[in-house]
Amino acid sequence: MSTIKKIPMRKCTGCGELKPKKELIRVIKNGNSEVMLDLTGKMNGRGAYVCRSMECLTKAVRTKAIERSLQISISQEVYDKLKAELDNEG
After folding, report:
1. What DSSP state is assigned to residue 6?
2. CATH for 9-89, among 3.90.480.10, 2.40.160.100, 1.10.260.40, 3.30.1230.10?
3. What does the alpha-carbon distance between residue 19 and residue 73 come to, in Å, rounded to a whole number?
4. Model confidence pLDDT, tens digit, residues 40-80
5. Where are the beta strands (DSSP E) in the chain?
6. Which helix (H) or strand (E) holds 32?
7. Residue 42: which H helix or E strand, with range?
8. Is 14 exposed, middle or buried (0-12, 13-18, 19+ CB in 10 A)?
9. Distance (Å, rounded) from C-alpha 90 to C-alpha 84?
C-alpha cells in the first residue's frame, strides 16, 4: 500500500494565499540578524515566503509584511535581490 506524500504549504506574505513551499521564494533572518534570500529552502533561520510574482513582492514591500514576519527592518539591497531573482525567472 503506497502512501501519499504530504506537500508542505506556506503562506505568501504578499497575497496571503497558501501555496506549495517549492513555488515560493524564502527570505530568512539568521541568528546574526542578517537578512538574505534562501533559494534552497533549507537554510537555518526564521523565514518569510513570497510568491514568484512581482505583484506579490510589491505588495509585501509596500505593506512591510516581510519585515513584520521576520521582526526586523530590511534594507533596500535585499528587496533589490528579490526583484532581480524574479526578473531572472520571467
Report:
1. P
2. 3.30.1230.10
3. 25
4. 889 999 999 999 999 999 999 999 999 999 999 998 998 99
5. 9-11, 18-20, 24-29, 35-38, 46-51
6. none
7. none
8. buried
9. 10
**% the chain with pLDDT above 90:** 74
Residue 35: all three cell numbers together: 537578512
Strand order in the sheet with 35-38: 35-38, 24-29, 46-51
Q: Across all residues in the chain, what is the average pLDDT?
A: 91
- Cell numbers that stand for 9 in this block: 504549504
Residue type, 56: C
C-alpha distances in angstroms, 1 versus 4, 6, 7?
10, 16, 19
The whole-angstrom separation of Cα 40 and Cα 79 is 18
Residues 6+ apart with CB under 8 A from 53: 14, 86
